[in-house]
Amino acid sequence: MRTARYGEKNCAITGVGIxxxxxxxxxxxxxxxxxxxxxxxxxxxxxxxxxxxxxxWPGGDNNxxxxxxxSIPQLQDALRLELGWYSNGGExxxxxxxxxxxIGAINAxxxxxxxxxxxxxxxxxxxxxFANNLVRTGERQRGGFAAYAPYHVYAxxxxxxxxxxxxxxxxxxxxxxxxxxxxxxxxxxALNPHAIYKAPITLDDYLASPLIAGPLRLYDCDVPIDxxxxxxxxxxxxxxxxxxxxxxxxxxxxxxxxxxxxxxLAEVDSQAQPKVAEMMWSRTELKPADVDIxxxxxxxxxxxxxxxxxxxxxERYGAKDFIxxxxxxxxxxxxxxxxGGGALSAGRLHAYGAVWEGCTQLWGRGGARQVQGxxxxxxxxxxxxxxxxxxxxxxx
Length: 396
Description:
This protein is 30% helix and 16% strand. It contains 13 helices and eleven strands. The strands form two sheets. It has a nine-stranded mixed β-sheet. Helix 2 (72-79) links the parallel strand 2 (53-56) and strand 3 (85-87). The longest helix has 16 residues, at 156-171.
């Protein structure tokens, strides 16, 4: 079989799965992960014996934070899988490092069907420590994060607010424009049975919500949850015989062409995204105008604004005008954004929640939130900071 020049084009997503998602589960994190994994395997029309690879990001952290509570050995044993290859690791292009590693393994002939999962148990862990904190109780700031100490930055929201302030200063975005990301995603979440928050929010609600770290308000921040999501990435020749229509991984962006430092970023208002997006577009003949749906990282609404610009859906510092009034990014708009509610309303499953939603849309399973017009191309992305990744998914 002819092999494509770029390895991602030899791979496809054949199934996706999701567990219950909640603000405090009665199930353990491993149980949730098993639920998502079995859901994905079944969706792909595979058996457990067909899975010969596992990848995850960043791997079991074993620190009671709930950030990454399930290790590969735990899941492999629970499912009794016999693997030819497995991989995890935090030092990767955002959360998509697991996908990019799987692409490499498939192209190297080490695996044919790779189970990729992302599990979170932060809602339960918050009883011991607040989610996404950068320093633990009784600890001193250390390493790179010591640079934040003079600013009393103890959580990601405070860290990102420093970057967002620079963006606000350069772009001139107004709060009522910024609000459109959160309002649109809550509207979409109301149609998503898996979403945490479904009650609509208005502009007045947004403007009245507490400032967490200006200019980030409560509705600009993602929601810690208990839950798991899984996807199956398969070799293309396997995928063509699968149960679902083919979703090819058309192009990826995985570059690190900036200083890999949270405190010494070359451009704090765009972070690592521009070069990552540039790499992705260099690996495909498709253009931003060909994208039907954008499932963009939204740990904070700031990141979604960044990705709209850095993917080229609008000019730099032009996101404020692109999202004005929310019409363009709505389900019925020219570029539907975060169709399931994203991390802001559906819950913090990182970029894999976005991949699950993107595949749900491409397979026409969105129900009341399904984007009309037979969407075929989804752009999706991870993270801010120096560890960004991007993918373009295409349904044949």
